[in-house]
Amino acid sequence: MAGINQSGKYTLEIGISVLPEYQGKGYATKLVKSITARAHLEFPEMIVTYDSQFTHNQSINVAIRSGFEQAWSEIFFSKNK
């Protein structure tokens, strides 16, 4: 499954989920490339983003294979109680 939503005034965010039995077969990359191309056609004024957790290597690799580049990273710390 793949979807896109408006995450900011000028940004669209892609979200995908691939069932385990279909992972590793290139479906995620095809989905992301397809939805990115469609978003650029329908909303040319918007920036398309793909967000992933820093430790989610599979997701990061999908983004890279789909043509995305890393723009920023966030690290959060919490105070021990």
Automatic annotation (TrEMBL):
Pfam annotation, one family: Acetyltransf_3
Domain of life: Bacteria
GO molecular function, one term: acyltransferase activity, transferring groups other than amino-acyl groups
Boundaries of every N-acetyltransferase domain copy: 1-81
InterPro entries: Acyl_CoA_acyltransferase, GNAT_dom
Identification of the protein by name: N-acetyltransferase domain-containing protein
Organism whose genome encodes this protein: Floricoccus penangensis
